[in-house]
Amino acid sequence: MDHFLYRDGALHAEDVAIADIARTVGTPFYVYSAATLTRHFRLFDEALSWAPSHLVCFAMKSLSNQAVLKLLGDLGAGMDVVSGGEYARARAAGVPGERIVFSGVGKTRTEMRAALEGGIRQFNLESEPEMEALNEVALSLGTVAPVTVRVNPDVDARTHEKIATGRKGDKFGIPIARASEVYARIAALPGLKAIGIDVHIGSQLTQLEPFEQAYLKVADLTERLRAEGHEITRLDLGGGLGIPYTRSNEAPPLPVEYGQLVERTLGHLGCEIEIEPGRLISGNAGLMVSQVIYVKEGESTRFLILDGAMNDLIRPAMYGAWHDIIPVAEAAPGVEQQLYDIVGPVCESGDTFAKGRALPPMASGDLVAFRSAGAYGAVMSSEYNTRPLIPEVLVQGDHFAVIRARPTFDEIIARDTIPEWL
Ligand SMILES: *Cc1c(COP(=O)(O)O)cnc(C)c1O
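That is the input. Now the predicted structure with pyridoxal-5'-phosphate docked in place:
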């Protein structure tokens, strides 16, 4: 559920008309709904309320604007970070170190040091060389780093090839069969303290079974490691719960059902539960709004050429992803729809958002909205073709604010330096 609805024929974000935002900030832009972000966070928080203690760590790689982090942080969210930059962003937004978990296969010593100095809840380790490196960094700072090991349970998440992460052969985690050996090694390293187990099998999962398979393996592993003398008190179960990208397809499981699955598979262990949802919190909390530049009648195809492009929202080009694309001015009842190929102005054919989409007759200047664009949208954008990063806007109730401004051409150009000797 989200808060983007038509009122009197005009698409709104909560109580603000999208067309009013477009008039103020220009197009294209991203707009997020604070009520939707809040609602999604709370659904997860409530779904884990059975656990002795729990923390919902927002996977901020999905949407990392400071305002969004502040909003979620103030609700009690932790953050799952995957780089030193994300760690710095989370701290700058006021999230305390004890609510930040550090994930990722390639953490550098510099990133480790910054997190240990600034405060960190735990590192999720993914390889033995990384263990050795973190041990050395922690010792050099005279501290002990709390860690979990990300295990690879060899489960197929049945999702898009590029975002499945829990199969043998994926670059993530340590094979679950080697866990005993790895935890024994950690116990021998004075700079590390193993506190739990981590698992994350992929993104945009639309069924519970892969989670169930993975979590049953984690339950077994918890008991095995405890029998071997390790204190396992925390389970980090990753993110990955999918969202509906079309309103017509079958509905993915709800957070409450996911929470029940976690309780059923892992509840008996008495562990603190952590999860790292990204997309389900941010995805349907955002739209990308774009304006029609031209309607071009091709030989066999009618093109809708927008001012938004693949550099602003890369998911269709990169993953073949579907976004519902809807008119900001609702079609009058009974109007006959037309089919459009919806494209951006970037100089490659990959800059196609959708083919053969039905929309009411559109004209230059009309606005369209891409639904489900809150996750992996703005964060993956670039300035390809020297197209400025597009603004981000946050709506709450009847007011809105620009939370990232569109840079000017001068600002973009000023980032380059021409060497003196040229
Ligand atoms: C990407 C990622 C997530 C979030 O995945 P979503 O599908 O957005 O929920 C969580 N944990 C880790 C380690 C990730 O890499």
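Residues 4-31+283-413 form a domain with the Lyase, Ornithine Decarboxylase; Chain A, domain 1 fold (CATH 2.40.37.10).
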